Amino acid sequence: MRVLYFHQHFNTPSGNVGIRSYQMAKALLRKGHAVTMVCGSYDGGSTGLEGPMVDGRRRGVVDGIDVIELDLAYSNSDGFIKRALTFLKFALRSAGLVFTERYDILFSTTTPLTSGIPGILARWLRGKPFVFEVRDLWPELPRAMGVIRNPVVLFAMSALEWVTYRSAHRLVGLSPGIVDGIARRGIPLERIASVPNGCDIGIFSAREHAWRPSQVHLNDLMAVFAGTHGIANGLDAVLDAAAELKRRGREDIKLVLIGQGKLKAELRARAARDRLDNVVFQDPVDKSRLAGLMAATDIGLQTLSNVPAFYYGTSPNKFFDYIAAGVPVLNNYPGWLAEMIVDEGCGLVVPPNSPGAFADALERAADDRESLQVMGRRARILAEKRFERGALADRWVDWVTGVAR
Q: How many whole angstroms separate alpha carbon 6 and alpha carbon 346?
C-alpha cells in the first residue's frame, strides 16, 4: 500500500530532534509499503534533502522514503503568531497534495493540531482511509499552560480537534493520558491504539565515542537534560537545584543542558547572573553524537513545568533516549513516567517545585554511584522489554495499514 504521511517536523537521524516519524516510515518500507512524507523545514531538524527549493518545495528519496519538503521554516523560538501562521500555511499547502498524490492511506501526526486538516479532506472529499496520531492534547495543554487564552482561538481549536477525531477512521495516542483524552471526546476505545515513543536501542548501544563537555571533570556526577529549552520544559527547576547545590558546596555535580529553544538565552543569562558555573550549556547534536554524550552521562533529567495536563498527557523523546542508553532518570513531576520509574526502580522521582528535594536526589546519586549503576541497568532492561522501537513500529504499522483491509 501507499501511505501519504504528514509530519510538519519530520527529522532524520542526521538532525537533532525526534526521529519517530523517520523510524515509522522505515518500518512501513520494511513491510513492503511505499511512503511519501510531507514536511516543512524545522530548525534543528534534517529532512535529508539538499539543493534549492523549486516553486516552494523540493522532493527526493531519503533512505527509501519519498520526501516532499515544503519551504516553510519553523523554529521553537518563533513567536506565537508566526508559529500559528506557519502551521496554517503547512496545512493549506498540504491540502493540495491530498488531491494530486497517489495513496491508499493518509496518515497525519501532530504537532500541530492543524496537521489533521489534510486527513479531514482525504476522508470526506476523496473517501480515503485516514489515521491520526496525537502526540499532545490540544487545546488542553496550551490552555492549561496559559499559552493561549483567547476564547475564540480556544473554541476554534476545540472544534478542529472534535472534527479531526471524528473524521479519522483510527487514532494513535502516545501516552495513557492522550488515549483517555481522545476517548473523553466521544471516540470509542476500539478506534484508538496506544503506541508510545520508542527506544532506539541500536543507536544508543555504542559506547566507544563517549564524551563529556570540557567543563565536566571525569569524576564529576554529570546530570544531562537533552531536549527543547522551552516554557513547557520547566528548566528553571534545574537552575534552582544548581543554585542549591552551589550553596551546599557540591562542586562535583555538573548539570548539562543540551538542546535549543525559546528560553535558552534567558536561561544562559540567569546562570551567568547567578554565577552557576555548575550549569553547562551545549548546542544540539545529532543522534550519533547524543549517544556518545549519553554513554558518559550518570543520570538523565526529565523535567516539565508543574502542569497537571502533563502528568499523563505527554510521551517525551528524551526519557526514551535515556533508558535506551541505560541511563537512570531523575523526574520532577507526577504521572505515568514517574510511576513507571518507581515501579521499575530505574531512577529517582522528586516532587515539583522543590529545589531542595531536587538537589538532595542529585547528591544521593553522586554519593552512591553503585546504586546509580543498578538503576541504569534496570533502565536498559525496561527499554528492551517494553519500548524497543522495532516492536512498537511493527505494532504501529499493523494498526495503520489495517484500516484499509
A: 35
Whole-number Cα distances in Å, 13 to 18, 288, 327 = 8, 8, 20
CATH dotted code for 2-198+388-404: 3.40.50.2000
Q: How many CB atoms lie within 10 A of CB 79?
A: 9
- Burial grade of 353 (CB within 10 A; 0-12, 13-18, 19 or more): middle
Pairing mode, if any, of strands 192-194 and 170-173? parallel
Distance between CA atoms of 271 and 248, rounded to whole angstroms?
A: 17
Helix (H) or strand (E) holding 321: helix 317-324
| Residues linked to residue 73 through DSSP beta bridges, in sequence order | 41
229's grid cell: 529549552
The helix-helix angle for 355-367 and 236-248 (nearest 10°) equals 60
CA–CA separation, 294 vs 222, rounded Å?
A: 10
Positions of CATH 3.40.50.2000 in the chain: 2-198+388-404, 221-386
Backbone angles phi, psi at 131, to 5 degrees: -120, 130
Please report, as a single letter, which amino acid is at residue 402: G
Architecture of the domain defined by 221-386: 3-Layer(aba) Sandwich (3.40)
Using alpha carbons only, how large is the chain's radius of gyration in Å? 21
Predicted TM-score (pTM) of the model is 0.93
pLDDT at 76 over 90: no
Closest CA to 318 of 229, 213, 210, 221: 229
CB atoms within 10 A of CB 247: 10
Separation between Cα atoms, residue 85 and residue 226, nearest integer Å: 28
CA distances (Å), origin 291, targets 152, 161, 275, 308: 44, 36, 29, 31
Which residues, 6 or more positions from 322, have their beta carbon under 8 angstroms from its beta carbon? 226, 294, 297, 300, 302, 328, 329, 379
Element (H, E) at 271: helix 264-273
pLDDT tens readout for residues 350-368? 999 999 999 999 999 999 9
Give the Cα separation of 200 and 204 in Å (integer): 6
For residue 381, name the pLDDT band (cuts at 50, 70, 90).
very high
Is residue 49 within 8 A of residue 69, CB to CB? The reply is: yes
What is the tens place of the pLDDT at every residue in 113-123? 899 999 999 99
Among residues 291, 209, 232, the alpha carbon closest in space to that of 258 is found at 291
